[in-house]
Write a structure and sequence with these properties.
Distance between the termini: 16 Å
Order of helices and strands: HHHHHHHHHHHHHH
CATH architecture: Up-down Bundle
CATH class: Mainly Alpha
Helix content: over 70%
Radius of gyration: 20 Å
Number of helices: 14
Structural class: mainly alpha
Number of strands: 0
Number of domains: 1
Strand content: under 5%
Shape: globular
CATH topology: Na+/H+ antiporter like fold
Length: about 325
């Protein structure tokens, strides 16, 4: 673990701690004044994250993306995402915690902290060559995973609201799912950005600067939100499930990516190393925003983010050793 990455991790914990202290000291208001976690979550989900997504999609260089490397990462990640979602649906997580609970657990085990931790880590270990591959993965990370998870969550919510006895329930479920998936603060900016990207016009400097300013707030707001949620909910009996989610994110996901990328796609060297380390990153704060959006499993998700970030200091060294063992850069 490099000094630069450790400094980043420490800075993250300090920011989370500030959110926790601010909530405990009631600097963000008293409970009767409103829920500060809900306010921060809405700010991130409806304002800051959409700005980040639309700016990212407009600036994508679609013609020069390393598609084989991207596929080697996203195929196993999406497989684990769907497997986690299906397992939790089958085990009745939706009945116990709400319709969106399977999707929330799926994002926690699949969505990594690719910017705050991933960028300095890859840059420190593999330099500019590794960072170029990592940035290509980052550019599609939120777009792919959040779009799929939004469709799953909205489908479950629509199915729950439509009921099963009404013969017209299926049609209403499909219509509601399609509408809520497209008219959504994650998917709509992605679609708008991609459409604008295809025009080749780019962003006016004023628009680009405005979006960049809003997007810059994503990281600090999300970290403060984690601290606010910890203060508001604690772990409240969620420690065991948070540990399982952490183990899945830090151990199972990178193992799956290593197997599929190496054996299935024939990836090796630097590309293999970068995709495995991308999968090995701790759970990202977007999982917390997702849990806040659907009002379920906030304590469990927060616990998994904190635990996986602490655990990454140990598991990163394990994956670097394994990558050297298989001959990756």
């Amino acid at each position: 673990m490099t000094g630069a990455v450790l400094a980043k991790l420490l800075a993250m914990f300090v920011t989370v701690a500030i959110g926790w202290v601010a909530t405990r000291r009631r600097w963000l208001g008293r409970p009767e004044d409103g829920d500060p976690a809900r306010v921060l979550g809405n700010l991130a989900f409806y304002l800051f994250v959409p700005a980040l997504l639309i700016r990212t999609t407009v600036r994508l260089d679609l013609a020069h993306m390393p598609w084989r490397t991207l596929a080697a990462f996203f195929v196993p990640v999406l497989a684990l995402l769907l497997g986690t979602y299906g397992w939790n649906r089958w085990r009745g997580a939706a009945a116990r915690h709400g319709a969106a609970a399977p999707a929330v657990r799926a994002i926690t085990v699949s969505f990594g902290n690719s910017v705050q931790v991933g960028i300095p880590f890859v840059a420190a270990v593999y330099g500019e060559a590794g960072l170029a591959i990592h940035i290509a993965l980052v550019s599609l990370h939120a777009l792919v995973l959040l779009s799929v998870l939004t469709a799953l969550a909205e489908s479950d919510l629509a199915r729950t609201q439509a009921g099963h006895a009404d013969p017209g329930a299926l049609a209403r479920t499909l219509a509601s799912t399609a509408r809520n998936t497209v008219i959504h603060p994650v998917v709509l900016p992605v679609l708008a950005g991609l459409l604008w990207n295809l025009t080749g016009l780019g962003l006016h400097p004023v628009v680009d600067e405005g979006l960049a300013t809003l997007a810059a707030a994503v990281v600090p707001v999300c970290l403060v939100l984690i601290g606010v949620t910890l203060a508001a909910y604690g772990l409240r009996g969620s420690l065991r499930s948070a540990l399982w989610l952490t183990a899945t994110k830090l151990l199972l996901l990178p193992a799956a990516v290593l197997a599929v990328a190496w054996l299935g796609f024939g990836l090796g060297g630097l590309p293999l190393a970068v995709v495995v380390l991308m999968a090995a990153l701790p759970a990202g704060s977007n999982a917390m925003i997702f849990a806040q959006r659907y009002e379920t499993l906030q304590a469990e998700t927060t616990g998994a983010i904190v635990l996986s970030t602490v655990g990454f200091a140990a598991t990163a060294s394990l994956w670097l050793w394994l990558l050297r063992l298989v001959g990756a850069a």
